[in-house]
Amino acid sequence: MYQIMIVDDEQYILEGIKEVIEQADLPFNEVRIVSSSKEALRLFRNNPYDIILTDISMPEMDGLQFIEETRKIWKDTVVIFLTGYQYFSYAKKAIQLGGVEYLLKPVSDEELLDVLRREIKNLDDCWYQRFFTKNRDSSNDQLKKEQQLLLEKWFHTCIKNNGCSPDLLQNKFMECKIPLSLEKENSLILVDYEYDESQNREHITGQWNIRSVHHQFMSILQTALYGDFMLEGFLVNRRFSLFIAQRIMNDYTGKDAGLLKTVQEMQSYYIENTDHVVSVSVASEVTWGALPAFAKKQIERMEQLNSKGEFFYISGSSDDKLPLYSDVDSGDEKDFFIIKIKKYIKQYPEKDLSLTELSSRFKINPSYLSRIFHKEAKKSLTEYILDVRMNKAEELLVHTNMRVSEISKKVGFNNSGYFTRIFSEYMGRSPTIYRKENLNPNKK
Question: Where is the HTH araC/xylS-type domain (predicted)?
């Protein structure tokens, strides 16, 4: 499943395109519309989208500048320019920025959907190549394997003993030819390869072997992060891998956005295609002195988690605690997540309830959240949110004197015209007619 962001300063265009995409049979788990290029860039920094469909002529920052900035964060996003400009200079600049398509307004629904289907096919092909690539590392070399095992054993001892001296660490890395610098901070990626025996899928990795899964995960990370990060990984035990990622360039614009996007995509791949429902913790800005003790603490905390498919991000090597659910009185951790998410949606129907926002708030992988919600709730997350919002709108129409424009904002619609259309489709009549048919003399 993919995520698409649509950027245009005209609200009616945004809502129209969103409606066309949501009604089509396309593999999107989020369709985000944004009316400001600066706001779109802010959202992209937090979560690089798979596809961007953007106008060029916009206030604050035009679409070309916007895409130029996103390329510094995550270069693999598919870009489709949708604009009224027909001048060659704009098209030329769009192509230079990697805009795969340049569509002129007004574009027909069929043409837009054809382009999206074609680019989704390209993304699928890239996905396949990324996760079935050969390891860049010469792991078959016996000497290197022996060095790796020795370093792994020694580093495991360091974690167990809460640390070691930087000089000793430097000597060990030089001895084993590990190209990481002690002058730079690190990002730690802790992976919990929990095997899900309830699944009956054929194993992508073949017979269950933690070391082969570890090497596969490391190979994919090395390939995906090539050119931006140096990477080394250690198998901590028969359940956890610890990877150390170090930025090559100190002025890396995207900070950890690209790293987080890569790791989350890998987690989605394992959840959707293998019997390993991996949980991941990523911590940035971890110094070498704090690394062993910090890694040990994160391992201990993740061992206490009852839930699966979680994704945590910790900025800085502080003593931030991962949320623990071991005290939850529930026979099924999936039920617990669904109950918590449903409660939040009902309590805050006016807030941003996108898949990205909910997965971030509840610290769970978006693909996994989408899948277990549909399985446990018997309807998609989007359908459930619409049900809650329409039921709340119905209640406000009948029991209050609020205007339709006020009600639309109370249930998460910034545009009252769009709310009226959706309500009419859902209820079979407009908000005004619905209110007249269900008059309540005790309105507040």
Answer: 339-437
